[in-house]
């Protein structure tokens, strides 16, 4: 049983050393496994031109995006200003309605006070008229006693 385990261990060790051996063989031959591709001068010019075009396109796209952003920001600012003006106008209208309601309430209170004053004045006038009528009745009664000369009334001092 010990032999199969040892052989398996040896196989695993050899497999793990295989990449190291391959690198050493390449280094010994002086040649890399992958040679970088060589580019001609006109290929490099084409790549450079393509990079410049891409950069110019990116700058143009960025400029366009910035213009859209600025336009949206201006619209938001305009909408906010319009909302602020609308809110200010609504607040002013509310204040006017409140003042008008207060004024109407004061006028109604003044009318009520005037009506109460008129009622009190009418009661006072009625009271005065009642007293005046009583006074006239008393005066008429005195005159009637004096003119009749009759001692029918007990309190007549004659």
What does this structure look like?
This protein is an all-alpha fold and 158 residues long. The chain has a domain at 44-146. Helix content is 86%, strand content 0%. The chain contains two helices and no strands. It has helices at 2-29, 41-148. The longest helix is centred in the middle third of the chain and has 108 residues, at 41-148. The N and C termini lie far apart (170 Å).
Concise summary:
This protein has 2 helices and no strands. The longest helix is centred in the middle third of the chain and has 108 residues, at 41-148. Helices cover 86% and strands 0% of the residues.
Question: What is the topological layout?
Answer:
Elements: H1 2-29, H2 41-148
Query: Main beta sheet: strand number and arrangement?
Result: none
- Strand portion: under 5%
Output the helix-strand order.
Answer: HH
Question: How many individual β-strands?
Answer: 0
Shape: rod-shaped
- Tell me the helix content: over 70%
Number of helices: 2
Question: Which runs of at least 5 residues are low in confidence (pLDDT < 50)?
Answer: none
The separation of the N and C termini measures 170 Å
Mean pLDDT: 84
């Amino acid at each position: 049983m010990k032999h199969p385990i040892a052989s398996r261990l040896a196989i695993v060790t050899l497999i793990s050393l295989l990449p190291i051996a391959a690198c050493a063989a390449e280094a010994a031959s002086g040649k890399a496994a992958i040679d970088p591709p060589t580019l001609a001068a006109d290929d490099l010019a084409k790549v450079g031109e393509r990079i410049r075009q891409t950069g110019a396109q990116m700058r143009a796209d960025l400029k366009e995006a910035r213009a859209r952003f600025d336009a949206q920001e201006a619209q938001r600012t305009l909408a906010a200003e319009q909302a602020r003006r609308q809110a200010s106008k609504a607040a002013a209208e509310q204040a006017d309605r409140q003042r008008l309601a207060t004024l109407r309430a004061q006028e109604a209170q003044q009318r009520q006070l005037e009506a109460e004053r008129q009622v009190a004045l009418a009661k006072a006038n009625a009271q005065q008229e009642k007293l005046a009528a009583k006074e006239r009745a008393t005066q008429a009664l005195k005159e009637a006693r004096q003119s009749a000369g009759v001692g029918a009334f007990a309190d007549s001092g004659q």
